[in-house]
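User: Teach me something about this protein's shape.
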Amino acid sequence: MWAVYALLSALFASLTAILAKIGMDGIPSNLATAIRTIVVLVMAWLVVLVAGQHRQIGQLTGRNFAFLILSGITTGLSWLFYFHALQTGDASKVVPIDKFSVVLTMILAFIFLKEQADIKTIVGGLLITAGTFVMILK
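Assistant: First, the predicted structure itself:
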């Protein structure tokens, strides 16, 4: 089932790039990011409230809060840089570079999460890296 969610994530991420590129026409990328963030915030809390998960807030530890706050900061920075790149560059060039985060995530997961780097994962990462560079070459 996780693969279905991952494919849906990829679909909506691709639509995000196209819709954002169109929606940012004539406005600053930071303003566009702020508007998008408000929408994401409202949607996320609606899902939490409808699912009744807000009752579990008391179970969060200081560690949970610290790492989720850090993750939120890095998400915000990623979105700000992404929207600026998307506004000033071609979506077909910006998105592959942004998706290079897959390879960076794999490397960081090997280092910090002690995940195993098998040959299939390494070859896949190398192919993604090669594909990224092919996509951005003129």
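Now, about its shape. The two ends are 38 Å apart (CA to CA). The mean pLDDT is 93. If you'd like, I can walk through any region in more detail.
User: That's plenty for now, thanks!
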